[in-house]
Known about the structure:
Blueprint: H1 9-22, H2 27-54, H3 63-67, E1 70-80, E2 83-92, H4 111-121, H5 126-137, H6 143-150, H7 154-161, E3 168-183, E4 186-198, E5 204-211, H8 217-229, E6 234-240, H9 246-253, E7 258-261, H10 263-271, H11 276-290, H12 295-309, H13 318-322, H14 324-327, H15 335-342, H16 347-357, H17 367-382, H18 392-402
Parallel strand pairs: 3-6, 6-7
Antiparallel strand pairs: 1-2, 3-4, 4-5
Helix pairs in contact: 8-9, 11-12, 16-17
Amino acid sequence: MARKRIITPEKKELIRNLISEYNITSAKDLQEALKDLLGDTIQNMLEAELDEHLGYEKYESTEEAKSNYRNGYTSKTLKSSVGQVEIDIPRDRNAEFEPKIVPRYKRDISEIENKIIAMYARGMSTREINEQIQEIYGFEVSAEMVSKITDKILPEIEEWQKRPLGEVYPIVFIDAIHFSVKNDGIVGKKAVYIVLAIDIEGQKDVIGIYVGENESSKFWLSVLKDLKNRGVKDILILCADALSGIKDAINAAFPNTEYQRCIVHQIRNTLKYVSDKDRKEFARDLKRIYTAPNEKAGYDQMLEVSEKWEKKYPAAMKSWKSNWDVICPFFKYSQELRKIMYTTNTIESLNSSYRRINKSRTVFPGDQSLLKSIYLATVKITSKWTMRYKNWGLILGQLQIMFEGRI
């Protein structure tokens, strides 16, 4: 059941006064009211700045007032997110006053919006953003204002989602990360599906972000078709967990692509059955499987690990036996290539970065808010990806032999 929004008596009185003062009957009226309030806020800040500069308040008679005093106003039009705002810059007799909130030659205060977007990108909550803006500029920003300002990046997100991609990707990872999202007053978990690719040059790149769809062959086919429409002609190896319907979708969209059960997910799904005190030893035993020199040796190691732990954790190793057909292709690749595919530095590191950046946001107010946050986090994370994988030249040569004629 949706939680009822609580409006305090103070807020009710403020809303009544706002509606009465500005005769608000439409969204346009509200925007005009906000524009006026912004102007009044800046005006009050300017007056306070001049008080501090002169050393006394307006109409106060002091010794300081004799040496320097107020000397009228200069009108100024400012550009802001809610439109043009008219203000009056107070002057002093000695022409020494330099406002900080609106410097002398500054007419665009929208950099405040850029700061808000930057703070949003760093994962700060609306409350934290409000505290920062209050500390720096001395006025409050509501959740609605933060949302309106960050909505300005939506066209940028759309352009990013449609940007052209490379023709061939040697390795593509697909993974899901979950966040709490409020829709219609109800908080639930939403998945963000991340498509992380390694290109021909050995560089990592996030090539797709998809929020909140239900897993199915139809959904995954739409994701893969989106990649094709943006220029992708071939994927050599696609690594993913047992996502519902993904195998059929890969066969339909990229019939020559090799589907590899993600080793990282396989390890994660195994260790969730294991108590903390045994996890380190169990993880070492699992490593003997996926670092084995060939499939037979890996299978033998899998049987040994299963036998060792079966009595204590009977469910832990079942998925290795039942999914061996999509795990075993892993063993035909070189150690250098395998390391890219099973190392946690590829997909797990990315997910950890998303969680770390958004740790202050326990609940997102909607899907769009979640998308904005993940996009901004992606831009921040991928800007640091400047190095290609170690030994990539060797790996690419091996791939050219294994997938002859496709690179």
